[in-house]
Protein 1
Amino acid sequence: MVRTSSPGKVILFGEHAVVYGEPAIALAVTRRFKMNVRPRDRGKGHLVDGHRMTAAHHSYFKYAVENYWDGGPLDIATDSEIPSSSGMGSSAALTTSLMGALVELSGGTIDDERERIARQSFATEYGVQGRASPTDTSTATMGMGVLLAKGPMDGLLWHVERGGAEWYIHRVDVPQLNIVVGFTGIKGNTGELVAKVRRFWESNNFAKETVADIGKLTMEGVEALNAGNVERLGELMDRNHQMLSILGVNHPKLQRLVEAARPHSYGAKLTGAGGGGSMIAITDEPERVAKAIQDAGGRPFIAEIGAPGLRRDGD
């Protein structure tokens, strides 16, 4: 048996625009997706949490196993601290945990195969969602902080091309920030939201300009991070949220949580695909912001960022 786990993430800047090759910054959080994988001694077919693996209920598992596993039937057990469809990268944490287990079961090691795991995990998300970026899978694989940029910079890890877009994936230093996450309790469908933005982008030049503006703003965010300018980070987060609203991925409850957090924050925005899911706020008063989010109907938690990436845990 192999035990693996991968972290969730929050996107500080650049969601949706990153699908079109624009930059994004993501930070790993300490909530993890945990998995035990063992070969089945008896029976045919793969099991996930005691149920027969099907495309309808286990799309990421099925895609990964069919494309990247040459062995026999597997028995997979999962335990997630990351709410599904919350904007915190649960599918990427799932996929990378599974890919890491498959590598270990095949005689390899996660540490030697991180790039391959990240690439195959991204291919899985892309295959299931129809359109995706490597933001979540890169962050889940590497942990800490990740920057996707249009060209090579300091800290380059690898380069990915798919669907007419390309990304240069880098490590970034994880800043000392107090981040509060607020989950709406509404599950956003990443594939549908990405497709919605795609339709807008294809039919409207203003949408294309907004996507490009998010990319420019993200690089301003890199400068603010490097300078330790929290006030500037907050200002950019507020602007990024407005741009994502223009792209049509905000939600009334998300907006309510963002507005509740802002009086006690440097900035607040939705994080991830939107349509529900979660928002984040940067603040010097995390407990106060968490209470404001809770009072507005959200489920808050104070995030610890810079978590380690995919790893094999004790068997």
Protein 2
Amino acid sequence: MGIRGVFRSFSYALEGLRYALLTQRNLRIHTVMAAAALVAAYAGKFSRGEVVLLLVTITLVVGAELLNTAIEVTVDLISPEYNHLARVAKNVAAAAVLVTACNAVLVGILLFGPPLLKIVQALSP
């Protein structure tokens, strides 16, 4: 694959990301939360390791959401009428997003909890 092929591949990937952002409310919510977490990490002067953990967590959630979208669209294409197995496929894909989102909440508590607790304690009389 030449340089044109590489650029074409990136173009297709960005087209998919654009589609997902425009059509998937949860992906937009995850994106806003990710941006807020990164800003808070910067403001909180997180260590390099903490930022890496945050970036990996964000990537897992967004990646799972993108895969979920791809699976949902594919299932709808293949099986436009109701099918129990189509429903199972969609539910399992959604569960993957749920698992990564729960992990993100736990990582967020571990990373942001201690600094937030210090702020709350400092503000308490």
Protein 3
Amino acid sequence: MKRKIYSILTATALLFLGGCTGDYLDINDNPNQAVSSTPELVLSNALNTTAGRLTHNQIGNFFGGYWAPSGSYSGFIEERQFDYGATYGTGVWNSCYDNLTDYKYIVDKADAQKWKAVSGIAKVMMAYNYQILVDAYGNIPFSDALKGTASIRPKYDDAQAVYNGLITLLDAASTDLKVAISGDNPSPAGQDIVFKGDLTKWRKFANTLRLRILMRQTNVTGKDLKTEIAKVVAEGAGFLGAGATVTSTPGYLKTAGKLNPFWENYVQNAAGSDAGAKQAYVCSDFFITTIQDVLKDPRLPRLAAKNNAGIYVGVPLGDGNDANLFPKRSWFGPAIIKSFDQPMVLMTAAESFFLQAEAIQRGFMTGDAKATYEAGITEAFTAAGLTAADAAGYYGSSIVNANWANSPDKIEAIITQKWVAMFSLTGFEAWSEFRRTGFPKVPLATKAVQAKAPARLFYPTSEIATNADNVAAQNVTSQFDNKIFWAKK
């Protein structure tokens, strides 16, 4: 029997739209009204909320070629037909700006006390959130945002100008993070649920985020990426390395509302019963076919589970018939579904290697593109529970887009392997990279209303209601044709 779900946004049982509340951190959820709040205390909750958001990655998992709705549920018109409007994905806008308000509070209070470490971390996370907003919506409030009653209808900034502003913000963050810990610049180790106060790791994360922002602009005419990336390298801390996946570990508990949000929404509740959304989402046919038949990737048993017939079978996005009922199709594997207290991923270390490999291959950085690419595959293999030897055997094979020498398009090989590495963890990033490069060649939904892939989200109804003139000035009329400035034309 099919269960009916009209939208990932109206079925609140399926989503953690606002992110994890973080009550178990014992921190006030609205720091701007909490008399006793301090920057370092608000930091824990802000980091937890950033990592706990699911909406943007769920959308990316669909549009990026990873997931499909199972035949056990009706609805999902937005995903099955690419037919959506201003009510779809509103959690992306709302949760990012709510989160940004927290980080702005931290920066303002910390800067006033010259707490450089706390301020630097918050600035990194502001850039992280703003990039998601640009990549989803294009032009957004930036220079006029987060001013409260001083600007209740903030003007919109050009998306590329926001990207430039994020590089400046990350530069400032790195400067802050270089200041030595002292009595006047206290360590945030007790409140930092990402790196436990290791400021060098925060600098590496900031540099990798800068590299992501810059590499997203490979299609932008007149952008001197070589010079800009040289500045990132000159910062000195380097990039995220082996085993350095950026995660949030607030201390999840086996209690309702305190489990890992991915687990609680897609796997099990605190009582051990199936989550309401467990049977709603399965692997797409494109993902299974690509991993199993095209790439012949040994990670398949780690990334996906066999169906009730003991084979790997995905669902074509858009196909909701009974042949695709949940037990008949492949769900997520043990590298994705681990435990109620598994960390939430902000950025994978494998992504760092693939960003560097692409930058080297395009001539923006010096180095060995092949070796860096293979390091990315190794990182992805070990993160999935396999070994470096397994990875070496794989990229040492003759398979196109696995073996470097046998891959005629090196950029396609890099992006394809990045896509595999990010499966179900950072789906929004996979969708963004598909929009930038066209790789991998994700097919359209079988019932797509147009023969085009989604290029963006619409501004949400809340913004239309409160900032109508500025929204209208952006002239966004199509989810297909109004592309983000960095997208492949």
